[in-house]
Amino acid sequence: MTNNKDDQQRLDGRTKMFINKKMSYALRHNPQKYGLKLDKYGYVDLHQFLDAMNRVHHFRPRLTEMTIREIMHGAKKQRFKIKNGQICALYGHSIPGIIKHPEKVPPKVLSHGTARRFLPSIEKRGLLPMGRQYVHLSADVDTAEAVGKRRDQHPAILKFNAAAAHKDGVKFYYANDQVWLVDQVAPKYLSR
Ligand code: HQG
């Protein structure tokens, strides 16, 4: 690990966002492009990850563990986790092999923020993972609102009766304190 305080101070918001995006891309969507292989929990060796990121993107100054930790701590969303010299994305995966997440008992109610234009389809088919491995749910309405605003200025916030679904045997996976994952959500558990 390089102690690179000066390098960090030079990192502006745009650079941090760029690094964040590339980290998400590598750890959620296309590790292959970086010559990386995630384990079944989505983890990869941190040093291999840093080498790959630097090789592909030619970061100057070089991307270090300290910079990544700084970005992670400063971010509003907890997207990544570093543990035992490995790093993973906590949610959002779209790679072919299913990534396993810890199963947990959910809060009684979860929320899902979405675009109003998707509602007719969601009312009919329920929530589906679409391009990702899992449906993503928010622990609170503010988070759901922020998620929905990515696609609609006035998003629809759906209430998911997680307690009823859990009782019926639906499995819930924990990503972080704000984000929960399920395989899909039947329309009967959803309300406005
Ligand atoms: C919608 C970001 C039509 C669903 C966010 C959503 C989150 C349907 C979109 C995380 C549907 C999928 C995930 C159906 C679901 N018919 N539309 N039957 N079922 N949809 O991006 O939940 O910033 O894959 O409502 O903040 O929006 O990247 O999922 O609008 O936490 O860290 O299909 O990604 O996090 O969109 O977002 P997404 P999401 P980051």
Description:
The chain has 192 residues and is α+β, with helices and mostly antiparallel strands. Helices cover 34% and strands 18% of the residues. It has 7 helices and 9 strands; from the N terminus they run ααβααβββαβαβαβββ. It has helices at residues 5-9, 13-29, 46-57, 65-74, 119-125, 141-149, 162-167; strands at 44-45, 80-83, 86-89, 109-114, 135-138, 156-161, 173-174, 179-182, 190-191. The chain has a 3-stranded antiparallel β-sheet with strand order 1-3-2. A hairpin with a 2-residue loop joins strand 2 (80-83) and strand 3 (86-89). It starts with a helix and ends with a strand. The model is unreliable at 1-8 (pLDDT under 50). It binds ligand HQG. Residues 24, 77, 79, 92, 114-115, 118, 121-122, 125, 127-128, 130-132, 136, 147, 151, 179 line the site of ligand HQG.
In short:
With 192 residues, this protein is α+β, with helices and mostly antiparallel strands. Helix content is 34%, strand content 18%. It has a three-stranded antiparallel β-sheet. Strands 4-6-9 form a three-stranded antiparallel β-sheet.
- Topology as H/E string? HHEHHEEEHEHEHEEE
- Radius of gyration, in Å, reads 18 Å
What percent of the residues sit in helical stretches (DSSP H or I)?
A: 25-40%
Record the strand order, biggest sheet: 1-3-2
* Proportion of strand residues: 15-25%
How far apart are the termini? Answer: 49 Å
| Shape, per Cα inertia axes | globular
Largest sheet report: 3 strands, antiparallel
Poorly predicted runs of 5 or more residues: 1-8
